[in-house]
């Protein structure tokens, strides 16, 4: 499909930045899955010697399937490069991530990397973050209280929307790789993402939010006609 072509060309371009001997953070989502497949091809065909640190169990499984040596973040300690997708990016290269429910490990791995490259298609580019619901990971204990505290906090911040919802997986609450829940915030437009990210993470029960501020170094945009743009 055209959108798959856009994701594929972005993923393939990003894999060109991977050098022999690197420790690479492997993102989660459909665009990141194309990246893992392209990286596996380079390992098999060029004998590229890299170690991959996955950001979810499903990425770990795919990486092993395509022949990438998978190690834990604790074994790697620091990474040379992380390549991951995003749900939105603005012109400051700030992101909303977490659409796939993996933003906690993704943010830890991206922060432990010398460089983060985000692979996207044009639908992810926005003037202001916030049209995509902002994921906030909360521990299961007292999650309804956490949700209420989050909404109370929103009233005092520069956001247009004030509603939130527990993310479901069918009839049951969605559960992350760490066994936590996700509250999606419908903010419409985030005026001050840096402030919002800090305030959210101060709320008891909140583990991490999906705003990536000053973490992304380069955005690769794939187009369905095969063109690729790199913004940094
Ligand atoms: O959950 C995530 O953070 C994913 O990276 C998401 O932001 C992008 O997923 P996609 O590549 O399937 O659109």
Automatic annotation (TrEMBL):
One of its GO terms (cellular component) is cytosol. Catalyzes the reversible conversion of ribose-5-phosphate to ribulose 5-phosphate. Its EC number is 5.3.1.6. The gene is rpiA. The keyword Hydrolase does not apply. The active site is at 106 (proton acceptor). Keywords: Isomerase. Pathway: Carbohydrate degradation; pentose phosphate pathway; D-ribose 5-phosphate from D-ribulose 5-phosphate (non-oxidative stage): step 1/1. The lineage of its organism: Bacteria, Pseudomonadati, Pseudomonadota, Alphaproteobacteria, Rhodobacterales. Homodimer. Belongs to the ribose 5-phosphate isomerase family. Pfam families: Rib_5-P_isom_A. It catalyses: aldehydo-D-ribose 5-phosphate = D-ribulose 5-phosphate. This is Ribose-5-phosphate isomerase A. GO terms for biological process: D-ribose metabolic process; pentose-phosphate shunt, non-oxidative branch. GO terms for molecular function: ribose-5-phosphate isomerase activity. SUPFAM superfamilies: D-ribose-5-phosphate isomerase (RpiA), lid domain (SSF75445), NagB/RpiA/CoA transferase-like (SSF100950). It comes from Maritimibacter alkaliphilus HTCC2654. Substrate binds at residues 28-31, 84-87, 97-100, 124. It comes from the Bacteria.
